[in-house]
């Protein structure tokens, strides 16, 4: 992530590009999806024990 930020700052030297908000817009929904999938998987495993 730091490398992407440095590269984007060097490409667009005077202005720069806000990498952090872009990565957050991609990463937060992905994190929510992964947590939801893991939660569903664990709840299915618990219900199948009985």
Structure description:
The protein has 50 residues and is an all-alpha fold. The protein is 78% helix and 0% strand. The chain is built from two helices and no strands. The radius of gyration is 19 Å and the shape is rod-shaped. The N and C termini lie far apart (45 Å). The model has no long low-confidence stretch (mean pLDDT 78).
The proportion of residues in beta strands is under 5%
* H/I helix tally: 2
Distance between the termini: 45 Å
SS content category: mainly alpha
Order of helices and strands: HH
Can you tell me the overall shape?
Answer: rod-shaped
Q: Strand tally, please?
A: 0
Radius of gyration over C-alpha positions, nearest whole angstrom: 19 Å
Helical residue percent?
A: over 70%
Index terms:
50 residues; mainly alpha; 2 helices; 78% helix
Topology record:
Blueprint: H1 2-11, H2 19-47
Q: What is shown here, in short?
A:
With 50 residues, the chain is mainly α. 78% of the residues lie in helices and 0% in strands.
């Amino acid at each position: 992530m730091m490398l992407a930020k440095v590269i984007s700052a060097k490409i667009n030297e005077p202005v720069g590009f806000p990498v952090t908000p872009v990565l957050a817009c991609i990463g937060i929904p992905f994190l929510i999806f992964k947590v939801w999938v893991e939660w569903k998987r664990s709840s299915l495993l618990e219900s199948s024990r009985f």
